[in-house]
Amino acid sequence: MNDNTCLCKSGKQYETCCQPFHSLKAKPSTCEQLMRSRYSAFCLQLGDYLFATYHPDFRGDLTVEQLSEKSMDWKNLQIVSTETGVDKGFVEFKAWYLLDGELNCHHERSNFIKQQDQWFYCDGAFYPNEKSGKIQRNENCPCGSGQKYKKCCG
């Protein structure tokens, strides 16, 4: 984030994008804003924020400490689709990460609910067959570098 562009790939500066949510100075007004802020919170290992925005009925045994651990080397976020209702919403996304030097894709359709003017992540449907990403060598790298896959993460 050396140019201070937000990690959620909105194109906005972090200070005007996800930081107000992370510092609890503002609340996401849509489920997509919450999803983007959670992605950047995973990148920044902000376990307190992730825990606070995870609906209590769906947390199970998760702890702030577990959510604070660096689990992946996150590289890019692609929003596939968003559906927002009054108190329910869905965001389908692909989050690209490096694991053991290989670029992988976490593809999920996340469920969100809104209670007392606050959006919460509940759970999601995963697409495990897309873990490899199946990227062609001459395609743009999904990590967001702007380079061809073969010259970047391929």
From TrEMBL:
Pfam families tied to this protein: SEC-C (PF02810), YchJ_M-like (PF17775)
SUPFAM superfamilies assigned to the protein according to its UniProt record, in alphabetical order: NTF2-like (SSF54427), Sec-C motif (SSF103642)
Residues covered by the YchJ-like middle NTF2-like domain: 30-124
Range of residues in the leader sequence: none
InterPro entries (alphabetical): NTF2-like_dom_sf (IPR032710), SEC_C_motif (IPR004027), YchJ-like_M (IPR048469)
Coiled coil (residue ranges): none
PANTHER family attached to this UniProt entry: ADENYLATE CYCLASE-ASSOCIATED CAP C-TERMINAL DOMAIN-CONTAINING PROTEIN (PTHR33747:SF1), UPF0225 PROTEIN SCO1677 (PTHR33747)
Name of this chain's protein: YchJ family protein
Species for this entry: Psychromonas aquatilis
